Every structure is written in C-alpha cells, then in structure tokens.
Amino acid sequence: MTLETIDPAALWLAFGLVLGIAELLVPGVFLIFLAVAAGITALTSWAIPKLPIGLQLAEFAVWSVVCVVIGRCWYRDFPVESDAPVLNAPALRLRGQVVTVTTPIVGGEGRARLADGEWPVRGPEAEAGTRLRVAHVDNGVLLVEPLGD
Question: CB 3.0-4.6 Å disulfide test: which of 23, 45, 59, 115 passes with 32?
C-alpha cells in the first residue's frame, strides 16, 4: 500500500476520530472543535477525491477557526453551570463560616478559630469567645462581622 492509494477522506476521518478520543481522555473543550473541522474536511475530500493536499490543509485550517469561534460564542451565550462554583476558590468557600475569637479583636485586629485552624482576623472589637461570621478574605486575613439575627 502506497501513499497514493490511501483515501484522504479516510485519513481526515481517522484524524478527526483521534482528536475526538483525545478530547474525551483529556477534556479541555478545544480538540472537539478541531475534530469537527477534520470531519468536515473528510466529507469534502470524499466529495472531491482529487482535491490537492494544500487545499485540504487550508480547508482544515479555515474550518478549525470557524468551529473554535462558534464554540467560543456558544459557551459565552450558554455557560456551563457548575454544582460547585467555588471549588477552585478556597477563599470564597470561607465566606459565611462562623469563627470563634481566640485573641480579642482590639484596634480592628485579632485572631479566631475556624475549623481546626487559627486565623488572623480584622473586624469590630470583640472579646475572646465571641462568635463572628466571615464576610471576606483578604490575603489570608479573615474580615469578620457580627452574626446578626
């Protein structure tokens, strides 16, 4: 079997399948668009068997750009909702947590226990043992506020 006997449409289809499988194995929502472009190029190569390789590569490049732009627009207009939106934002996960003051907050600064750790805190004057709520985290310092009702 020589290179001249291999069907270019089959090569493009195989390339598209490899890209699709790679997207499944290493998800990044990018290779799938290239796989679609390879599939379109495979269809064109099948419909026009004598299409020169330079035009096939150019078509693949154009369809790659088109598919990526369409994909970007799709994900911008229809974002994927997450069941854990703060998974990669540990500081945001601390918001709303209740802390217990361990070192009195004097002059706006003190220390408080959160879970099994002790953190520097800034907030209103408070005695040791007072329970406060984390409002924000600023460079490793918990900004706390009264619990309220």
Answer: 23
One DSSP character per residue, 4-15 reads GGS-HHHHHHHH
In this structure, what DSSP letter does residue 126 have?
B
Place of tokens 């035009």: 55
Quote the CA–CA distance of 129 and 101 in Å, as a whole number.
5
Write the DSSP symbol of residue 81. P
Alpha helical stretches, state H, 5-141: 8-25, 31-47, 53-77, 90-94
What does the pLDDT average to over 91-113? 93
Q: In this model, does residue 1 exceed pLDDT 80?
A: no
Give buried/exposed letters for 47-79 (b at 16+ CB in 10 A, else e). Answer: eeeebeeeebeebbeebbeebbeeeeeeeeeee
Tokens of residue 69, six digits: 């732009």
Task: Supply the mean pLDDT for the chain.
Answer: 90
pTM: 0.57
Please report where in the chains the tokens 């229809």 appear, as a residue.
Answer: 78
Q: How far apart are CA 5 and CA 149, in angstroms?
A: 79
Q: Nearest to residue 23, comparing CAs of 14, 13, 34? A: 34
Instruction: State the pLDDT confidence band at 84, using cuts at 50, 70 and 90.
Output: confident
